[in-house]
Specification:
The protein contains eleven helices and ten strands. The chain is α/β, with parallel strands linked by helices.
Length: 260
């Protein structure tokens, strides 16, 4: 069972679902270097643990999902080169092969938006606000902000966020395609857990392959993406889970998928 080694990042297993909670509500769940290291460790553990099929990431409290990096810790880097080569929590999350759901329960500013964008499905509470706020402090995001915003929200909407740093509300985020749906705050985690359990019931190799294929579709030319998809389909078709899926369909029962 995967557990966290620090209080500021919590990890809770619920069957095949792992819930990661950023736990600094008094600081709007801003991420410290220690938290970044722990998120990196958890990312590797998730990839290595076949019992984990889906991950949920959320924030502690009712105000914030994540306010990004803790600004007070940025002066701790001795040189710009040290800053450039820091352990980055967004890099860690991007390396997770399992599907990830973001439950955005309030402010998602700066690296908080990037954290959410590293997730495959994003759900938001009605009080959520998203902002690429770095420009207000004199820099830009470095965890994939521009690329992911442009892919999800379109170039003009991404530019609006990147160049003003002003927040958008949850309804706007949904209209722009940054989040899938919006829920009352007290219903957000129930919906995230329900969705996670649904995905966890699917064949895990197929789920991971679908995620890999979707990510690749952003970077490959169309014809290459089609060939890659066909190759991944062939890999899935050769698994025991695919055999079980066909048998369950023929026998009109629920499939029992083991990730083989």
């Amino acid at each position: 069972m995967i557990t966290s080694q620090i209080d500021a990042v919590q990890a809770e297993s619920d069957g095949h679902v792992l819930v990661i909670t950023l736990n600094r509500p008094e600081k709007l769940n801003a991420v410290t270097p220690e938290m970044s290291k722990e998120l990196t460790r958890l990312a590797h553990a998730i990839n290595d643990d076949d019992d984990v099929r889906v991950v949920i990431i959320t924030g502690s409290g009712e105000r914030a999902f994540c306010a990004g990096s803790d600004i007070r810790t940025l002066d701790d880097y001795a040189t710009p080169w040290d800053f450039r080569n820091r352990i980055d929590y967004c890099d860690a999350l991007r390396e997770v092969r399992k599907p990830i759901i973001a439950a955005i329960n309030g402010y998602a500013f700066g690296g908080g938006v990037e954290t959410a964008m590293m997730c495959d499905i994003r759900l938001a509470s009605e009080n959520a606000k998203l902002a690429a706020a770095e420009i207000k402090l004199g820099w830009i995001g470095g965890g994939g902000m521009s690329a992911f915003l442009a892919h999800s929200a379109g170039a003009s909407n991404a530019a609006l966020m990147l160049l003003t740093g002003d927040p958008i509300d949850a309804s706007t985020a949904k209209d722009w395609g940054l989040v899938t749906d919006v829920y009352p705050l007290d219903a957000l985690m129930d919906r995230a857990r329900e969705l996670a359990q649904t995905i966890a019931s699917r064949p895990p190799i197929a789920a991971q392959t679908a995620k890999a294929n979707l990510r690749a579709s952003f970077t490959m030319p169309f014809d290459d993406a089609m060939r890659y998809e066909r190759d991944l389909q062939t890999i899935c078709f050769a698994t025991d889970d695919a055999n079980e899926g066909r048998a369950a369909f023929a026998e009109k029962r629920q499939g029992q998928f083991l990730g083989h």
